[in-house]
Amino acid sequence: MGTMDSFVPPFGLGKLAIPDNLNINISRTTVFFLLPTALLLTWYITTVTIQYYRLRHIPGPFLNAITPLVLTYHSLKGDITEYTYEIARKYGPLARLQPNMVVYTDPDTFRRICSYKAGYTKGLWFEFSRWDLNSYSCIAMRDNPRRKDRKNRIAPAWASGGLAKMETRVDKTVHSFLDLIERNYISSEPKDKSTAARPYGRPMDFGVRSMMFTLDVATSVTFGKAWGFLESDSDVNEYLSTSEKMLPSFGVLGSLPWLVYVMHAWPINLLMPGPGDRVGFGCLMKFATDQVNKRIEAINSKSDPEKEAPNKKDNVDELDIIRSYLNNGIPYADVVQETITLVVAGTETTAVAFKFALLSLLTTPSAYNKLQSEIDAYYSSHPSASPDDIVPYSAFKATSSNPEDISPASSTNSFSYLLAILRETLRLWPPSAGLFSKQVPDQGDTIHGLYLPPGTEIGQCMLGMGRHPSIFGTDEEDVKSFRPERWSEAAEQDRIDGGNRFEKMASTVELVFSTGKYVCLGKHVALMELGKFFVEVLRRYDISIVDKITPIKVRDPIVWLAKDFNIRFTRRDISTQ
Ligand code: HEM
Fold first, then answer.
1. What transmembrane ranges does the database entry give (predicted)?
2. Domain 166-257+340-571: CATH architecture, name and number where available
3. Whose CA is nearest to atom 20 of ligand 1?
4. Ligand 1 in reach of 431 Cβ (< 6 A)
């Protein structure tokens, strides 16, 4: 039994008298720690209880309703997309994923949330796409009127004129990839043994090379000049290796978005990437800043090519996205953010589609052969095409009158099977599988009969949308398989009974690029890259998997990262095409 003296508590609370007769055997130090801990615990329990009660009517696991850490755990474990899908399937159509987050899988809810009319704003989830808390890119803007204004300012660069310039850059990157195969990765008899790849027949890790491809496209589309990953066949500025290390932390931020403010606060912000870094993401920041500065200097100087030759349309290096953004009144610091966002938004996403499309083809020989026949038939019917030509986007692009419609099959499209493969890939492995949460507006909302109070975060489960048996197939097993034929079957069925299955399937898959006020600006660039790549690579080469037992290693902290996807290329005879 001991007595305690009075002691001075922290925070200037004055002298706290502890009565001599209080029969507690604790030290002063313990009290110092116990008091704040008890206060913190009380605050935490109250908050959790309030949050729990706010959405207690939404079905979901109890643990998810009281802590956001379940999602953090699955992000670190690397199975976050599958986990979210399981929750949505088990507890849906609207399930509780976190204390203040619900998730849904139906396309109609998706469309409504993304419409201007519904009044939803972007959720906290998007905070992690801010590299600098003092400036904004459109994707990170959460205030509706401001982001509408910004989108109107950035959209012109992506209209048809801009897209045509981007196509020349995509073509150049496809050529760089073909050169890379010939230089380093060809397994057939070398054309010229003196310059043949060394070591001869080396496999290519397509997990890494697909990222290099999309990075070269994104940097050349954004800055007018590729960083040259494919040309050097190396990890320029160690961008890939540092991004790979950073991605798991993005996963954690996706589940605990408020951590972004902690990360940007001193002294933790000193650990964040910055333009002074010699490697990684900081290099992209520096490059983006330099490129924007260069355009501003050009605008201010007499040698501004646009002032001297305003009609010189083919000057693709100068009349570019950055110029357009500056001309449209976007502030300097925000233009820098927009360009960084373009590189980030356009690379990992498109690379996911590349990897899973190729994996699906290599593990489905019937689809692989059918696609190659379609490509050969196209070139046989275009005898004037030279072996160096790259298929134009117009050969496989949307033919519908709706400009938002990415690629409906039509009887005149020579590449309907290619489109079926791309759709099937995006359906099964949506590259935008993250939650991309939005916030319920001030008046609240009711979804599937369940009331959502204002401020509730609502996340999308793209995996669930792409695997809806009622939209895509007969049963759960069928919708899980990669079966490009389902698209021609649906079109045929519609022709017989006048239904609209095909349209419903196509418009659901299209949602991987979002819709309404959030629609992806780069979707045509992404489709261009994918279509051109598969046509031109499979036209010239046969591809095989090296490791037949484990063809690919996938981890999913927030987006599917795949590596050790080793493939071999052997040359095809295209002289007879
Ligand atoms: C298969 C590849 C791609 C997919 C699945 C995809 C998906 C998406 C999605 C879902 C969004 C909307 C996010 C939201 O606000 O809810 C988005 C936005 C955006 N994407 Fe893509 N994207 C792809 C490729 C690209 C490419 C290649 C570029 C550019 C080169 C790009 C640039 C952008 C930009 C700038 C935005 C922001 C638009 C805005 O803020 O309103 N994306 N993308």
1. 31-53
2. Orthogonal Bundle (1.10)
3. 520
4. yes
